[in-house]
Amino acid sequence: MDFLYDLTGHELAEVSSTGGWNRGEVYAGGKHLATYSGGKGGTTYFIHADWLGSERARTTAAGAAYETCTSLPFGDWLTCTGGDPSPMHFTAKERDSESGLDNFGARYDSSSMGRFMSPDAFYKDSHVGDPQSWNEYAYARNNPLRYVDPTGENATVSTSCTTDANNHQTCNVNISASIAIYAAPGSNLTPDQLNQAAGTIQNSIQNAWTGSFNQDGVTYNVTTQVSVSVAGSQDASMSSGAQNVIGMTNGPPMAGVGAYVNPKSVCSALTGKPDTGMMDINSADNYAKHEFTHLLGTDDKPGAVLSDTNPGMRPGSATAQDFGWGIREATSGVSSWVHTPQYRPMRYGEMWEKPSTYSGQTTVGAPVFWWK
């Protein structure tokens, strides 16, 4: 049996040993939409997933129910009724029929134990202030109902929304990001100073970027979780797997500039290399929460917002405007859901009713943006 994958690691097709096409998988926007099974002349089955991306039902192209699936939080005790045209189940990962393990790309996960079968690299996502990160076998901070792990290495953003009896929408948005810091040449910073700075950066970002705001009649509750690791050198930081790499200096890295980022080359953007920059360790609290706006893809903005380049204008935490700019990928999906008509006509006079809940996922990071 052979398998074909796209550049993001999604399984696209299963091919038999003789070259015959067994099934194909269809994705859009990173989400699993359908399975085409049965080879030439086969059938398309559409996926109906929960907020984490786990398949809960499949229907035929004609709209008839074909399969329903239930499982416990870690994907364990998976039970499906009806046909099972595809092994893609827990968070849209392939479940191996022989071992029962889920293939996450970088590692295999055991749903029965809620643990990966091999450890993650310690430097990738461990921090003294987050004990759940110390277990390198744990799945998504032991919180599988809120977070997903797209590759077996990092958590990602999960957005879930509900509508109450008064037709008011509330969305919970969870942001996660990873940063590696190192002592810039000539800074003479000690490991203790770097470890202290790592804690400062983590607390500064998490405290500043946790809160609530209202936009277009929707209430958003935002929580942020950042892991900041210390590496022994710039090279070690670059190979750490962190989304962002910061060299810490003992004083402004440039005259009148407390933090900056290097322009990302086209090659770096295409290969997904981390953003790199410099930051004055003596002002890490102030600069970290501002630079995080650029990590989320927001340009510098004027006014009393964290996105302002003038430190004297910045408030202590993100404003409603900062949140709106920073999680615009999440809010755009919510906006489409909110403004979808309650009922929509279908074939044969049937009416489609808009679901009362919404879920979506996106990856934190802006590889083609600069920190400023």
Key phrases:
372 residues; alpha+beta; Collagenase (Catalytic Domain); 2 domains; 8-stranded antiparallel sheet; 8-stranded mixed sheet; disordered C terminus
Could you outline the blueprint of secondary structure elements for this entry?
Elements: E1 2-5, E2 11-15, E3 21-28, E4 31-37, E5 43-49, E6 55-60, E7 65-70, E8 79-82, E9 94-95, E10 102-103, E11 108-110, E12 115-116, E13 157-163, E14 169-183, H1 191-208, E15 211-215, E16 218-230, H2 234-238, E17 244-249, E18 259-261, H3 266-271, E19 275-280, H4 284-295, H5 320-326, H6 328-338, E20 343-345, E21 351-353, E22 357-362
Parallel strand pairs: 14-16, 14-17, 17-19
Antiparallel strand pairs: 1-2, 2-3, 3-4, 4-5, 5-6, 6-7, 7-8, 9-10, 10-11, 11-12, 13-14, 13-22, 15-16, 18-19, 20-21
Walk me through the structure:
The strands form 4 sheets. This protein has an 8-stranded antiparallel sheet with strand order 1-2-3-4-5-6-7-8, with no helix packed on it. Strands 13, 14, 15, 16, 17, 18, 19 and 22 form an 8-stranded mixed sheet that branches. The chain has 372 residues and is of the alpha+beta class. Helix content is 16%, strand content 33%. It has helices at 191-208, 234-238, 266-271, 284-295, 320-326, 328-338, and strands spanning 2-5, 11-15, 21-28, 31-37, 43-49, 55-60, 65-70, 79-82, 94-95, 102-103, 108-110, 115-116, 157-163, 169-183, 211-215, 218-230, 244-249, 259-261, 275-280, 343-345, 351-353, 357-362. It has 6 helices and 22 strands. Helix 1 packs across helix 4 (284-295). 35% of the residues are buried. The protein has 2 domains: 1-146, no CATH class; 156-332, 3-Layer(aba) Sandwich (Collagenase (Catalytic Domain)).
